[in-house]
Amino acid sequence: MSMKLLSSVSALLCACTTLSAHAENPLSYHHTLDTEVRMDGRTDREEKWQYRLRYYPTVNLTSDNSWSINGLITTGDSFANTRNSFDGNSHNLYMRRLFVRKTYDGGKTEVGVLPTYKGHVSLTGLSYDGWIKGIRQVVAVDDDTAVEFVAGNLDDLDAANALDFPDEMNYYEFEYSSRVARRHHIELGLERMLSGNFTRAEYRYDLDNSHAATVEWVQRVDEAETKLTTGFAGLLPVAEYPVSYAAYYSYTSEHFGPRGTLTEDFIGTGHGFSVDCFAQIPGLPSTSWFVGYDLIDATHRLQVGIRSRIR
């Protein structure tokens, strides 16, 4: 990590310490470490053996944990890349998130270098480990409905510069999410990002307590470009530990732009089919195996690996 990054973290922690001195209890700290090793094999290139480290530090500033400082330090050198190759020349580790969060009964407010999502990650969402420099406001209208607004900056996709102060406001997102009936969930959104304007819609139907069907659609409104995914996800009762799965069809039009390529593990444009499975490894708590297969036009891809989480 650079001296600039260390200086930013130190200054923020000093500010937090000063704030917490007036709180009922002193600072409390906790963290999570995610590790992963995988083989990534594709028919259009040589296979890669890769590793990933994700470290999530959190400093709680109040006794009820309503005020907190949150961060993410991870491998990888770009917005959508969080893995290093064992045989590569670069083994980078960068802090790519650092933000203040305030939670309350009616929602939450986040300010700083933020996650790209408010709660869960959708198939059409930006990369899980990406960042937005700005502010997020989530308001819970009731137990089943929430609205979210994000304003900020997204232009420099180099992880080394994730904590740099933004030059301009060029990212805006508004989202409405609701459970409209016991098994029916919808999300509707408007987005301005990466020099494009988009509308987004997601519908999920809970088939039962273990399986759901989903459709996600993103339309670029300033050009006739589309991204679509539809499929099924759930749990299969296999042996001692259930197997989580997701199977879906996807389509990304050729000129959809970075809004499509900056999703998790993007392969290419066109028609595709994907299957992902994972489950806990017997006898190893917080450790799981995973297998993923993708077919995008003429490109086949297989991913096999192990993940572990330490709290």
Biggest pleated-sheet summary: 16 strands, antiparallel, barrel
Bin the helical content: under 10%
Task: Give the terminus-to-terminus CA distance.
Answer: 23 Å
Q: Ranges with pLDDT <50 over ≥5 residues?
A: 1-5
Helix/strand order = HEEEEEEEEEEEEEEHEEE
Q: Quote the beta fraction.
A: over 45%
Count, helices: 2
Mean pLDDT across all amino acids = 90
- For the secondary structure, the number of strands is 17
| Rg for CA atoms | 20 Å
Which structural class best describes the helix and strand composition?
A: mainly beta
What's the shape? globular
Strand arrangement within the widest β-sheet reads: 1-2-3-5-6-7-8-9-10-11-12-13-14-15-16-17
Describe it.
It contains two helices and 17 strands. It has helices spanning 3-20, 258-261; strands at 28-42, 45-60, 67-75, 84-85, 93-104, 107-114, 132-142, 145-153, 171-179, 184-193, 196-206, 211-220, 225-236, 243-252, 270-280, 287-296, 299-310. A 16-stranded antiparallel beta barrel has the order 1-2-3-5-6-7-8-9-10-11-12-13-14-15-16-17. The radius of gyration is 20 Å and the shape is globular. The relative contact order is 0.12. Mean pLDDT is 90; it is low at 1-5.
